[in-house]
Amino acid sequence: MTTILTLDIRLSGWRTRASSWSARVEFPESFTLSDLHFTIQRLVAFDDDHLHEFFAGRNWRDRKVTFGEPASPLEVNEGDEVPLSEVFPLPKGQKLYYNFDFGDNWLFEITCHPDTKQSDRKAKSAKLIHEKGRRPIQYPGEDDEG
Questions:
Q1: Quick one: which of 117, 56, 114 has its CA closest to 87?
Q2: Are the C-beta atoms of 108 and 97 separated by less than 8 Å?
């Protein structure tokens, strides 16, 4: 039996003026923060070309726990290998935040939907349940044709 977590992911912070994108995604609880990072990258079609971090708090300014990426590619990043089952449930009133690209600060707020369920199937990937709004554009104004 596998526990499936339903996470609500939405663009947060000052970027919400440009896009109100959000998604509901199911994840096996054994997935790691690294898996969550790659899923968000795939959902919003960003290039995975910048550092990122995960942190928890009541809001994006209130960091209680930080799970981060190493400052150097030579360092081991143990924070990203934390399974989602160790992150959720968060203490009451806290949310998980994903900050991508420390220059542009793409901030996403992640909450665990109460619709957690058990499944007999061996979930090997995240499953998009619902998406709304326009996906953010990582490099607005750049020619996408390259």
A1: 56
A2: yes
Provide the residue ranges of all domains of the chain, joining segments of one domain with +. Answer: 7-113
The fold of the 7-113 domain, in CATH, is 3.10.290
**Of 144, 72, 141, 84, the residue nearest 111 (C-alpha):** 84
**Residue 131 to residues 21, 40, 84, 94, Cα–Cα distance (Å):** 8, 12, 21, 23
C-alpha separations of 122 from 1, 35, 80, 109 in Å: 8, 16, 22, 27
For 12, the token pair is 């947060």
pTM of the entire structure? Answer: 0.82
Per-residue model confidence as pLDDT tens digits over 81-121: 888 988 888 888 899 999 998 888 899 999 998 766 766 56
